[in-house]
UniProtKB/TrEMBL annotation:
Catalytically driven reaction(s): O-succinyl-L-homoserine + hydrogen sulfide = L-homocysteine + succinate
Positions of post-translational N6-(pyridoxal phosphate)lysine modification: K213
Alphabetical UniProt keywords: Amino-acid biosynthesis, Methionine biosynthesis, Pyridoxal phosphate, Transferase
Protein name: O-succinylhomoserine sulfhydrylase
Enzyme class: transferase
Gene Ontology BP terms: 'de novo' L-methionine biosynthetic process; homocysteine biosynthetic process; transsulfuration
Pathway info: Amino-acid biosynthesis; L-methionine biosynthesis via de novo pathway; L-homocysteine from O-succinyl-L-homoserine: step 1/1
GO annotation, cellular component aspect: cytoplasm
Species assigned in the record: Billgrantia endophytica
Cited InterPro entries: Cys/Met-Metab_PyrdxlP-dep_enz, Cys_met_metab_PP, O-succ-hSer_sulfhydrylase, PyrdxlP-dep_Trfase, PyrdxlP-dep_Trfase_major, PyrdxlP-dep_Trfase_small
Length: 398
C-alpha cells in the first residue's frame, strides 16, 4: 500500500511547495480541492457542542477555519519553517492582526524608514490612535535600531530588501537586538518569499506576507499571511477569528496553486532582473542602478550571504530629472505603468510621484527617492522585449 505520510520535515523547499499540507478527501482527488462554504454541519447535537466548545477539533465557520485556507496555511508555514501560519484577507490585515494581537497602548514599534506606504499609514495614523507609537530608522544602520529601542519597545519591523533601492539589513543581527531587549522581530518577506529568504531560520520571530505579490505571482488575488511560533500565532489567530480579516477559500486556493511554481518563478524573475540590471548599468543614459545583485551595490555581500537570490525589484536613475524619467516611462508600450509588483507582468513606476508621493521633499531626500529614479518590478516576459521597451526611451536621452 502506498504510504503518502512522508515526514515533511525532511522535504526540500520545492517539494514542500507542491505537497505540504495536502490531505485528500474521500474522493481521492489528485489536486487540492476548494471548499467554498461559510459553515459546517455535524452528525449530532453532541458533536456540534464539542466542536463549538473546542473540545474536539473541526471546522465550525469559515471566519474561524476552512480546509482550503488551512492547506495554504500549512504549506506556507512549512516553506517558511514556522510552527504555524495564519492567513488573512490582505497583507495589510496580516500586519494589523499581528500588532493588535501582540501590542497594547504604551508599547512601541521600531521600524525601517523604507516601508510599504500603507504600512507607514497603519503605524502612524491608526496604531498611533491606539497609543502605540513607531520610531523609524535607516534599514541597514544597526546602531540606529539599537539606539531607537526603549524599555517599551515590543516589536522591530523591517522589509528587506527595501523598495526601490534594494537596501538590505542583517536579519540575524537585528534579531539579536530585538531579543536582547525582549522584543519580537517581524520581517515583511514579500520581496523575496521563502524561495529566496527564510527569516525565521535567521532568528526572526514573525514573517509577514502580502500573498497578493509573488505567492500568487499572477496578479489575480489579494491576501496575506503571518508565520511564526504557536505562542504568538495563537494570539494572531484570535484577532483574525474575532475581528474577521480572514482569507476567502477561493483566494487561498489560488495562492496554494501559486506556491507550487514559486521557486521556478522566483528563479526566472531573478534571472531577468539580474540581466536587466547589468544592461541598465552599461546604458549611457543611466547614471545609477540600485540592485543588490550588482557587485557595486553597497549591500551586495550581505545580500549574497543572507539571500538565495536578489529578487526582481530594481531602481535606476536617468540623466535629467522628472521630465527625463517620465519620458522613459511614457515611451514604453509593453511594460505596465503601475505601482504593483510580484506579477509575471513587468511593471514600471516613478516612485517620487506615486508610491512615495506622500513624502515631503526632506523625507524623499533621506529615503534616496530622487526625481530621476524609476522602479521596475521585473516580470517573466522575454528579456529582449523588456529591454527593447526601456531602450526606446533611454536611447532618446543618451
Ligand atoms: C503590497 C505590500 C503590502 C500590503 O499587502 P496587500 O496585500 O496589498 O494588503 C505589504 N508589504 C509589502 C512589502 C507590500 O509590497
Amino acid at each position: 500500500m502506498h504510504d503518502d505520510s512522508t515526514p515533511e520535515a525532511a522535504w526540500g523547499l520545492e517539494t514542500l511547495a507542491i505537497r505540504a499540507g495536502h490531505h485528500r478527501t474521500g474522493e481521492q482527488e489528485h489536486s487540492e480541492p476548494i471548499f467554498p462554504t461559510s459553515s459546517f454541519v455535524y452528525g449530532s447535537a453532541a458533536e456540534a457542542a464539542r466542536k463549538f466548545g473546542g473540545d474536539e477539533p473541526g471546522n465550525v465557520y469559515s471566519r474561524f477555519t476552512n480546509p482550503t485556507v488551512h492547506t495554504f496555511e500549512r504549506r506556507l508555514a512549512a516553506m517558511e519553517g514556522g510552527e504555524r501560519c495564519v492567513a488573512t484577507s490582505s497583507g495589510m490585515s496580516a500586519i494589523l492582526a499581528t500588532v493588535l494581537a501582540l501590542l497594547q497602548a504604551g508599547d512601541e514599534i521600531v521600524a525601517s524608514r523604507s516601508l510599504f506606504g500603507s504600512t507607514v499609514s497603519l503605524f502612524d495614523k491608526y496604531f498611533g490612535k491606539l497609543g502605540i507609537t513607531t520610531r523609524y530608522v535607516e534599514l541597514s544602520d544597526l546602531a540606529a535600531w539599537e539606539a531607537a529601542v526603549t524599555p517599551n519597545t515590543r516589536l522591530l519591523f523591517a522589509e528587506t530588501p527595501s523598495n526601490p533601492l534594494s537596501e538590505v539589513v542583517d536579519i540575524a543581527a537585528l534579531a539579536d537586538i530585538a531579543h536582547r531587549h525582549d522584543a519580537l522581530l517581524a520581517i515583511d518577506n514579500c520581496f523575496l518569499t521563502p524561495a529566496l529568504q527564510r527569516p525565521l531560520a535567521l532568528g526572526a520571530d514573525l514573517v509577514i506576507h502580502s500573498a497578493t505579490k509573488y505567492l500568487d505571482g499572477q496578479g489575480r488575488a489579494v491576501g496575506g499571511a503571518v508565520v511564526g511560533r504557536n505562542r504568538e500565532l495563537e494570539e494572531i489567530f484570535g484577532v483574525v477569528r474575532t475581528c474577521g480579516p480572514c482569507l476567502s477559500p477561493f483566494n487561498a486556493w489560488i495562492f496554494t496553486k501559486g506556491l507550487e511554481t514559486l521557486s521556478l518563478r522566483m528563479r526566472a524573475h531573478c534571472e531577468n532582473a539580474q540581466a536587466l540590471a547589468e544592461w541598465l548599468d552599461r546604458h549611457p543614459a543611466v547614471t545609477r542602478v540600485y540592485y543588490s545583485g550588482l557587485a557595486h551595490h553597497p549591500r551586495h555581500a550581505l545580500a549574497a550571504r543572507q539571500q538565495k537570490g536578489f529578487g526582481a525589484v530594481l531602481g535606476f536613475e536617468v540623466k535629467g530629472g522628472r521630465e527625463a524619467a517620465w519620458s522613459v516611462i511614457d515611451a514604453t508600450r509593453l511594460l505596465s505603468i503601475t505601482g504593483n509588483l510580484g506579477d509575471v507582468k513587468t511593471t514600471i513606476t516613478h516612485p517620487a510621484t506615486t508610491t512615495h508621493g506622500r513624502l515631503s521633499a526632506d523625507q524623499k531626500a533621506a529615503a534616496g527617492i530622487t526625481e530621476a529614479l524609476i522602479r521596475v518590478a521585473v516580470g517573466l516576459e522575454s528579456l529582449e522585449d523588456i529591454r527593447d521597451d526601456l531602450a526606446r526611451g533611454l536611447d532618446a536621452l543618451a
